[in-house]
Amino acid sequence: MDRSSFFTFFCFLVLLSMLERSFANDRITPNQPLSDGETLVSPTQKFVLGFFSPPNSLNRYLGVWYQKCPRSVVWVANRDQAINNTSGIFSISKIGNLVLLDGAKNVIWSANLSRLEENPIAQILDSGNFIICGNTSRNPYLWQSFDYPSDTLLPGMKLGWDLNTKHEKFLTSWRSPDDPSPGDFTYRLNIDVLPELVVSNGSIRNFRSGPWDGDKFAGVSAVPNFIFRPTMVSTQDEIYYMYESISDTLVIHLTLNGTGFTKRMILDMEEERWHSWYTMPFDRCDSYNYCGANSVCSISKEKACNCLNGFVEKPEVHKCARVSEVDCKAEGEFTRLAGVKLPDLLQVQLKNSLDLQECKEECLNNCSCTAYAKSNLPDKKGCLLWYGDLIDMREVSDEYRGQEIYIRTTPKQGPNNIYDWEKFMNSVLLYSVLPYSLIAAGNLIVGIVFCIFWTKKGRKAKQVRNVDLDVTVFDFTTIRKATNNFSNENIIGKGGFGPVYKGTLSTGQEVAVKRLAKDSQQGIEEFRAEIVAIAKLQHKNLVALLGICAAKDERMLIYEFMPNKSLHHFIFDQKGKALLPWPKRFDIIMGIARGLLYLHQDSKLPIIHRDLKASNILLDSNMNPKISDFGLARTFEGNNEEMQTTRVVGTYGYMSPEYVLEGTFSVKSDIFSLGVLILEIISGKRNPGYSHTAHRQLNLLGHTWLLWRDADPLEVMDKCLKASCVRHQVLRCVQVGLLCVQQYPESRPPMSSVVFMLTSDDAGTLPQPEQPGFFFQRSSASVVMLAPGNDVANEGTSAPVVNTKSKREEANGGSFSTC
Description:
By secondary structure, this protein is of the alpha+beta class. It folds into 6 domains: 125 residues, Agglutinin, subunit A, CATH 2.90.10.10; 133 residues, Agglutinin, subunit A (Orthogonal Prism), CATH 2.90.10; 131 residues, no CATH class; 39 residues, no CATH class; 89 residues, Phosphorylase Kinase, domain 1, CATH 3.30.200; 231 residues, Orthogonal Bundle (Transferase(Phosphotransferase), domain 1), CATH 1.10.510. The strands form 14 sheets. The protein has a 6-stranded mixed sheet, sandwiched between helices. It has a 5-stranded antiparallel sheet with strand order 29-34-31-32-30, covered by helices on one side. It is globular.
């Protein structure tokens, strides 16, 4: 053999040896145990198995985590007993049992196999499943980690029951982020009547999904699940829930945290970090039995909790009770309630053989029956019958439809619910002043007493009596003490409404108090508008209203305190902007977009914000964005695309062309403002008053569009982001921002598309933006001098119209201009 041939053969042997070692790196055998410091890696290097220590801990655990995100542990073997040093050894015996030993050869954890075979192999798969392979085709897996979940549900992992062995697969939270031992919360598939997912703290339920309807869990009202496909399987051997990712390139999982929340997470492969897609419970109505028995929770109504038809609120028993008892001798009636999560399946019977009409008759024949509903079993008829109180009902968004239930009522039993009860009381009061008879005169006396009582009660909260919202009302003394008598030292901001004070309640809770100034241009209508808007909304990217205070001529809103103030203080400040690298700015953009999507689409009470800008985006202690200031917000119907006003309000530089010039606003007005905000976050420059040496007459929108047209969009990026930016993300955000600020409303994408485009990895599929509206900083025909960013509220025709042509007349290449 010549030298070159020998060298070639030697290289082949080295390569073969490397391939063998690489192939064997995903498994252990009786002759190849795993020591602390060594790892197993799945074939495509997606998952790793090895020893790890949680944050702030020296304890060692054997677990599985994502290769690209080492902090994301998805399975832990020895949750109950840690190893206190690095002497651990993980091995498999010759008959197939997995054993974890410490340095003293004590057994820390064992798989405890029920069936053993010789010469087994333990392997980590690309699914994240750690398996023991047998030598028979009867059951290739002797054991698998997927049968013993920790706090994470991976795609393909089953949550449910083996009906033969009675083995249940469920999630258990970590004790804390530093301690993977089993915590207080569990996430399991309840199969007592119909399958539904339940989060519990011991025997106390925190959340339930509602029963499976053949396609989804019908009681869940959250973000559409177009990133995964859920499945429910029921056979004579097992019943389980699982899901799969819609794409092999999309890395997702569901985790149960130590506070009882489940989070659906998506991995950003380039940044190697996780983004939360949504969290459950999603809003207050997802909290188990939030409103008590015989009531429905709603985030779309002025009052969150409303009694069912035929029930009235009874504070002394902390629930809604029937106006009158069911008379079994009388002919019964039922009220249909649609679009809800069905009540908890506690005192309930499942009748597989009955259709809906038969179910109604069955309920009528039993005095204890309170409601019935279709069971929605796939390809089967069947119904549910409830006996006793109806627990944990909520409205479900139109997109999810929910289910329908028939509530038993008594004919002519009086007011249907608390709202009808109030109308009933008002009618009694009205009738009492009509002198038809001595009875009416007696009613007049009762009415006078009632009026006196109501008047005294009304004086305490005169300004908010008609708001009728389910919010906490603080007394003036409490807020005065909290803010140190409204000390100037406690002022943390000012706006068109008035000053905002930092306050500390007697409980120690920090709050932000928004106080209407006596000389404010805004009045009671804006005050009411803000309460009505924000009190009905529950989303992690919306600031939470804690309560109100109204006494004499004082009107105040009490919000959760945001320690990092507003986005304005960071992106436009030379020192502050350095604290916001690109990953955090992208998170802020996504948070704002998801909050706006909720306002426009996912809320039962759709809202147009009308004043979206950097100073109205507050940041919590983790720099998560929260949309605030709903004083100019307006509700709208789903089929009402545009609304007209003669009162143009908002902030110049953020208002859309059709709104400033024609007084027409819609959800697309908010999308224009979002586009401005996205470009400001990227550039660190304000659109109002923007100036650039190369394009002096252009505002930020015009300058950015010219850079995009000239294929140099990254030039607009804030220089401090150079080291942290993710190039394709910045380009995508610039493109989406320009799509949002296009001249015509119909050209701007809806919020659902905006969120999708921001998270899409395929920028080539996005439409190309056209020239934005309000392209120039000032007009040659008309110059209106305003301090950049000043709030305006111009009455009628006094609004400064900088271009009197309609937007349709500008279609032939003209540009809008304003200052």
